[in-house]
Amino acid sequence: MVRGAARGGGPSRPRGEPASAAPEAGLIRRGNPWFSHDPHPTQPKVNDMEMEQDRRWISGKIDIGKEVWYMTQGEVVSAGLSEEDILALTKEALVAHGNKKYEMPAKIGVHPHPEVFFHAMPAYVPSKLALGMKWIECFPNNPGKFGLPQTTGLLILNDLLSGCPIAVMDCAWITAMRTPAVTVLAAAALHPGAETFGMFGCGVQGIEHVKYVVHTLKNLKKIYIYDVKEENMDRLVASVKPEIAAKIVKGKGFEEVTRSCEVLSSATFIVKKPYAFVKDVWVSKGQTILPCDLNTFWDPVTSMRADKYIVDSLEEHELFDRAGYFPDGLPEIAFETGEMLAGRRKGRDSADELIVCSNIGMSVCDVVVAREVFNRALEKGIGRKLPL
Question: Whole-angstrom Cα distance, residue 173 to residue 185?
Fold first, then answer.
């Protein structure tokens, strides 16, 4: 039986949902494959008093509608959020998403070159008074061609009552922190007793994944890493070794790392063609696989045959399917990561289940973390006022 829906043959639906289920209220589908929006109209509204109090506090620092608070990447970092803070905030955002107490359309984007993308990522999380949008790009050739980061971008926060922008900040650091936070929170829910973790890709994301995973997988004894560039592995080891008690093993190749680990993650690049660097025959029952690179890195057969294919956002994965990133079909989706963290769905039912949990990034996490950065920056006077 084919478990994935062929591209163009309709969206994948969560396992257990009847085929005749009507679309969720408010779901809008249009001809443009990059448009999808679920406003979750039943979400609880923040009361006006809470919004007024928030606006008064911000107005003590900036003249809303005439000024905006600006922060460079260095100033975003100096706001002082710890790894524990990022984990807590990211979990709050994911739980809100799992409980459907948010508003977030799937990513829309433009693609001026085949290998690059720009994504516009708006979100609203009422419980955190977080409203804004991230505008981010990925240019994989930047480091070699221009000596610039692969990923750059900005994040804007808005006042809930007037809609005026209140903050503009660099978003690269926020993205680099919340991405591994999602991975390791999911890892802890799916494989809490794991003693081995493998990381493919040893760039910024790889380094942060290794730093973050020890916070949630408390029994780790060995962390395997692999990158096609030896210098990247050496840089990762130098960056994390003073902080990490678990033994760090530089892998000799994709197969060795895959066969050696209970939990595996990858943070490489995203393109439409599945490269299948990790072959399905190397993957075993009982493993937990947490890709950050959609359908590019792993053999698509693995996701198709997994006992559970979990995603951070069903809508975003359906969007990427329609755009051609799953040429063999989108695997049948069990449920969303946030539903698991909110306690609405059980992650692992048995020790021998093969589980793939694909998290490609959601703006609910970005705006929640950014709002806390903004709050602390205003309190500490980090950043500056700019006229609108």
Answer: 19
